[in-house]
Amino acid sequence: MTLLSVRELEVRHGLLRAVRGVSFDVAQGETVAFVGANGAGKTTLLRAIAGAHLPQAGRISFAGEDVTSAPSYRRARAGIALVPEGRRLFGELSVTENLLLGLSAGNRGAWNLDAVLEALPQLQPIRHALARNLSGGQQQAVAIGRALMTNPKLLLLDEISLGLSPVAVDLVYAAIAKLIAAGTTIILVEQKLDRAMSVADRMICMLEGSVVLEGKTSQLTRDQITDAYFGLGQVGAHS
Length: 239
What we know:
Blueprint: E1 2-13, E2 16-27, E3 31-35, H1 42-50, E4 57-62, E5 65-66, H2 72-78, E6 80-83, H3 95-100, H4 113-119, H5 136-148, E7 154-158, H6 166-181, E8 185-189, H7 193-199, E9 202-207, E10 210-216, H8 222-229
């Protein structure tokens, strides 16, 4: 079943066409990774899906409804949750308080405070600590947990390993593996190609705002993706 459908999406920053005619579908329970160099349009695309940046053209459908012009709060209530690059926690609030903010979306479901702390056990011993005192990896885990508290149908993860130590990245990806096993639908933007390939069912590579390669991870080689990443091969492999 298709959960998200994006058609001929165009998003601008002023005169800059950051996303150019992008189309793709995401099935329920699927994990899709978007890769590409800085400036490829990946983050802008995720923000457009979440409603933080309205497109100039194209269509976004979620769970069968047209949400192209819907504000971000309506998309959150519909089940779209974005974990933004930079995490954006409230530093003067505790871990628990930051997590509970996710309840503001008003969605009921399996994810509550106990379930999130079980899925992200590294947060249990620091649940009363202030967010500003946490390491980067701990903050990232809180940001993921806060998104889960909205009980999302679609989880958007933007550059979640950026700036983290290898140990912290391991912990974050261990959490992602649990979410995938639980059937969570995920769109992942990631610079670390090996990490993305380790969890994604499908890879989509962007270059200068456009999709230049798309295919099942099992049917793509690292060299194919790397060539597309750097614009060395413009022929896409679609499946």
